[in-house]
Design goal:
Serine Threonine Protein Phosphatase 5, Tetratricopeptide repeat, 0% strand, single chain, mainly alpha
């Protein structure tokens, strides 16, 4: 364990007052290196390494972060095919953020063959899981007749109300 992580664990253990060690799991540690904070500097290569190991071990959240790092060229050259692979892995495990990100790849044809119907299915699945950005995208698709959706103004208006409610409750943060 890195010295800084040992210090963090020691502080957390003291704060836990004897409940036991409260050390960060690999995914939490990776997020710390991705965003920085708690006395830890941003270290994208370390974050990438930790996300990669956890994703290869089957963690869908780590796969999502790994996919986003590939998509955005964070610590590695931008690789849309690798991004699509890891986002698909996470989407198959019911991660709505991954579904939405993968839908955007299908809409742009970035790393995958452009496919509006595949994008629509992913947006609908993510919206069904109450992912605010997907609910909003679905409303826009219905309003405009885009993203594989047939134009339906009445349903678009209903979806827009759901989207506005969901966005008001959306937690801050993200990648």
């Amino acid at each position: 364990m890195l010295p800084i992580m040992r210090k963090i664990c020691a502080v957390l253990t003291l704060l836990a007052a004897g409940v036991g060690p409260a050390c960060a799991a690999p995914l939490d540690e990776a997020r710390l290196y991705l965003r920085g904070g708690q006395g830890v500097s941003v270290d994208l290569p370390k974050a990438f390494s930790l996300f990669s190991g956890a994703a290869k071990a089957g963690d869908p959240q780590a796969a999502y972060y790994l996919g986003m790092m590939y998509q955005n060229g964070m610590s590695v050259p931008r690789d849309a095919k690798a991004a699509a692979h890891w986002l698909q892995f996470a989407a198959n495990r019911q991660m709505p953020a991954a579904m939405f990100a993968l839908a955007n790849l299908y809409l742009s044809g970035d790393g995958v063959k452009r496919d509006d119907q595949a994008a629509r299915r992913l947006i609908e699945k993510a919206a069904d899981l109450d992912y605010p950005d997907a609910v909003m995208a679905m409303a826009i698709g219905l309003r405009d007749g885009s993203m594989g959706f047939e134009r339906n103004e009445a349903l678009a208006e209903t979806q827009m109300r759901f989207a506005n409610r969901a966005l008001k409750q959306k937690p801050t943060g993200g990648m």
